[in-house]
Write a structure and sequence with these properties.
single chain; alpha+beta; six-stranded antiparallel sheet; 8 helices; globular
Length: about 190
Amino acid sequence: MNKFFITAAAAVSISFSSFAQTTEGAMEDFSEYIKLTEEENWSGVIGYMPDVFVDQIGREMLLGVLEQAIVQIEQSGLSLDDFTDFTASDKFLDYEGSKYTLLEFTTHMSFRGPQDQMEQMQSMAATALNATAAEIKEDEEGSRVLHLEVPSTVLAVAVQGTEDWRFMRYTDQQKPMVAQLISQELVDRLEELK
């Protein structure tokens, strides 16, 4: 199941075609990302990931991971419902010719399944996803649905002097990868943006 969350994290890795330093502008770009995700346009999503990330993992491998993530999400009974509470940090970090910032939002997910699986999913969501809210409600058809709110962070990077931003999810699990791809010093300094 841990592999599921790694691939799900890749599937919802946020990317925008250009970064707006206001929440309003960023939300417009975020809508485009949502559209790409809903259309399962993984090639488009990968186009917004940092080159160093794509080069290290490989474009074909990322396409496979993203496609597999959708299958795993569907098989698990989880669905990605919405992204809200989007905020862009007003702090930027200059590091070795690039600028970095953190973006935060809430990922809303839901799970439909038998009661015993629902309780397991609720417990796992609290630990594996750091879900801050988990609530079981009935939908219009009378089925029980587990609704999850998962705080999410995105690392945004652009070459100095450009507004060509690239994005990737940034969680405690991704920090070692960022440290390996770029540097541990960068990971340490990113804490200044919080």
